Amino acid sequence: AQSVSQHNHHVILSEAASLELGCNYSYGGTVNLFWYVQYPGQHLQLLLKYFSGDPLVKGIKGFEAEFIKSKFSFNLRKPSVQWSDTAEYFCAVNTGTASKLTFGTGTRLQVTL
Amino acid sequence: DTGVSQDPRHKITKRGQNVTFRCDPISEHNRLYWYRQTLGQGPEFLTYFQNEAQLEKSRLLSDRFSAERPKGSFSTLEIQRTEQGDSAMYLCASSQGPSRETQYFGPGTRLLVL
After folding, report:
1. Which of A100, A87, A72, A96 is nearest to A19 (CA)?
2. Nearest beta carbon to residue B42 from set A46, A98, A106
3. pLDDT of B1
4. What is the pLDDT of residues B93-102, one digit of tens each?
5. How far apart are CA B85 and CA B87, in angstroms?
6. What pLDDT is stored for residue A95 in this prediction?
7. φ, ψ of residue A71 in degrees (nearest 5)
8. d(CA B114, CA B104)
9. Which chain B residues are closer than 8 Å to A46 by Cβ?
10. Could you tell me if A13 and A54 are in contact, meaning their C-beta atoms sit under 8 angstroms apart?
11. 3-class secondary-structure state, position B114
């Protein structure tokens, strides 16, 4: 069974700082990878996803993520965060044969002015 | 664009009571998922449907939990004889098909069992 690890549980950054959130998964086969975001008081929404092709994926609001197969990683990045990026970020994975998502425990990002 | 809706948004019940939650997916989506999320954790998969067929159930789903999706449209999740450990956010999501498709989440139903 697949699993997902997010090592950063709580990250505090100043506005304009660069962001990188780690995500590692364990599964030996083909995977689809997702980053979801949950803004305060809102429901989960998709930031970006990867299933094949260019391992550098661009999503909404200036976020991007890089799939590194050899490291089983799918880290999320943003060059310059804004106060409005304050939210909880979840990495998730599913496989070609099982569409259920397996989520990490999430990273709470707090951006200060 | 109407998203995934869930009802009720909040439910407080006493231990031992039965509760039922409803999820209305995005209309053209044939897959519907239920997840549970507790504080400090990511969502955990419970079960999913393709049209009206329940294709997978998690081992987390005890015999007290049952889900249905009659006619392949809305779905209900029932918890019988609730326990305090059932307190959580119950999330519904829907997607258009294969696993690479985006799952769109509803706002969730927050259950508190006293």
Report:
1. A87
2. A106
3. 54
4. 999 877 778 9
5. 5
6. 86
7. -105, 0
8. 30
9. 102-104
10. no
11. coil
Phi-psi group of B71: left, alpha or beta (phi > 0 → left; psi -120 to 50 → alpha; rest → beta):
left
Å from A101 to nearest chain B CA?
A: 7
Instruction: Name the amino acid, one letter, at A105.
Output: T
Contact A89, A36 (CB under 8 A): yes
* A83/A87 Cα distance (integer angstroms): 10
Residues of chain A contacting B, Cβ within 8 Å: 4, 32, 34, 36, 42-46, 49, 51, 90, 92, 94-106
Token pair for residue B95?
A: 């997607």
Q: How far is CA A112 from the centre of its chain?
A: 20
Task: Provide CB contacts within 8 A for B26, sequence distance 6+.
Answer: B2, B3, B4, B94, B104
Residue A52, class by beta-carbon neighbours within 10 Å (0-12 exposed, 13-18 middle, 19+ buried)?
A: exposed
Tens of pLDDT, residue by residue over B15-42, are: 999 999 999 999 989 999 999 999 989 9
Q: Which residues contact B98 (CB under 8 A, 6 or more apart)?
A: A99
Cα(A81)–Cα(A61) distance, integer angstroms: 10
Per-residue pLDDT of chain A (113 residues; tens, 9 = 90+): 789 999 899 999 999 999 999 999 998 788 999 999 999 999 999 999 999 999 999 999 999 999 999 999 999 999 999 999 999 999 999 987 778 999 999 999 999 99
